[in-house]
Specification:
Number of helices: 11
Structural class: alpha+beta
Number of strands: 9
Largest sheet: 7 strands, mixed
Length: 352
């Protein structure tokens, strides 16, 4: 193809490109035009490839024609791109305009979980009696979870607290009693008696039903000092029952068995619904079982380095879920863990 024909073709191509640029309706379409004319497979590239077929005198002439195309194309492209971007921005701003006179959306506010509220209220009660709140590991050693609680290996009472084992000596704790053992080991009685509660999650291999869960929250209490008796335990539990369930509550202690206390007792409170007449809550007995407790077994004291001939103590343990279920008439423990907002929003507010 002659140099004249190539020059004319470049000039004609520039005119066609300008026409298409002016008719473009969006920046996306504009980019497609750029690719059509100046891309690797574009129409101008086909003209440029003819350069190799020209003489040395003709090559500069074609170069000038190609440069002329680029100048014309880029000027038209730049002006059109600026106008399209301004128009698109204006359209976007118009579409996203916020009417500041509209009322604001009310954001839903959360609240502490009912189990957290219950735990905090129990903690506040015992803090008022001079107890300390002590935390401990949820992954525990067999030594502290069982052996220091007077449950040696192969003891049949371990079956009641079958748990999730990591290996033979490491497990998820079945109660918060290990925190008590660890605290007794470190306590200095020259600074006063040991009075503590240990709240936290515990794990047992229980079937999930309306009143049982493989994971639940527990608060255990411990007092160790000289001359601590079962009467001290009863007085403490009476105050607790009245604080949690009303000043009219009474308690009774029934003999029971726990490896880490001797004597051991179950504590019942007088029914707050029927006042002892008998109802579905108390199973027609007038009493509701609330927790297990007892006088700390001398062996438990000795295994933690405490002289059982000089010191004695009492201990108790209760499920936070059980307290919450009784106080709020919840019929299924699983409601606490299913994250159903219809259930949880009934307990907005809380103790604090």
């Amino acid at each position: 193809m002659s140099i004249e024909a190539l020059q004319n073709q470049a000039a004609q191509l520039a005119k066609e490109a300008v026409t298409q640029i002016e008719s473009a309706d969006s920046t996306k379409e504009l980019q497609q035009i750029r690719v059509q004319y100046t891309g690797k497979k574009g129409e101008l590239t086909a003209i440029s490839k003819e350069m190799r077929n020209l003489s040395n005198e003709e090559k500069p002439l074609l170069g000038q024609a190609i440069s002329g195309f680029h100048e014309t194309f880029n000027n038209a492209f730049g002006e059109k791109e600026t106008r399209l971007k301004e128009a698109e921005l204006a359209a976007q701003l118009a579409a996203e305009t916020i009417d500041v006179t509209l009322p604001g959306r009310i954001q839903a506010t959360g609240t502490r979980h009912i189990l957290t509220q219950t735990r905090e209220e129990i903690e506040d009660f015992f803090l008022g009696l001079g107890y300390q709140v002590v935390d401990g590991p949820e992954v525990e050693l067999d030594l502290y979870n069982f052996e220091k609680m007077n449950l040696p290996k192969n003891h049949p009472a371990r079956d009641m607290q079958d748990t999730f084992y990591i290996d033979d000596e490491v497990m998820l704790r079945t109660h918060t009693s290990p925190v008590q053992a660890r605290t007794m080991e470190q306590h200095d009685f020259t600074k006063g008696p040991l009075k503590m509660i240990s709240p936290g999650k515990v794990f047992r291999r229980d079937d999930d039903d309306a009143t049982h869960s493989h994971q639940f929250q527990q608060i255990e209490g411990l007092v160790v000092d000289e001359h601590v008796t079962l009467a001290d335990l009863k007085g403490t539990l009476l105050l607790f029952a009245q604080a949690m369930f009303g000043e009219q509550r009474e308690i009774r202690l029934r003999p029971s068995y726990f490896p880490f206390t001797e004597p051991s007792v179950e504590a019942d409170i007088s029914c707050f619904k029927c006042e002892g007449a008998g109802c579905n809550i108390c199973k027609q007995t007038g009493w509701i079982e609330i927790l297990g407790s007892g006088v700390v077994h001398p062996d438990v004291l000795e295994m933690s380095g405490i002289d059982s001939k000089k010191y004695s103590g009492f201990a108790f343990g209760l499920g936070i879920e059980r307290v919450a279920m009784l106080r709020h008439n919840v019929d299924d423990i699983r409601h606490f863990y299913q994250n159903d907002s219809r259930f949880l929003t009934q307990f907005k507010g809380g103790h604090k």
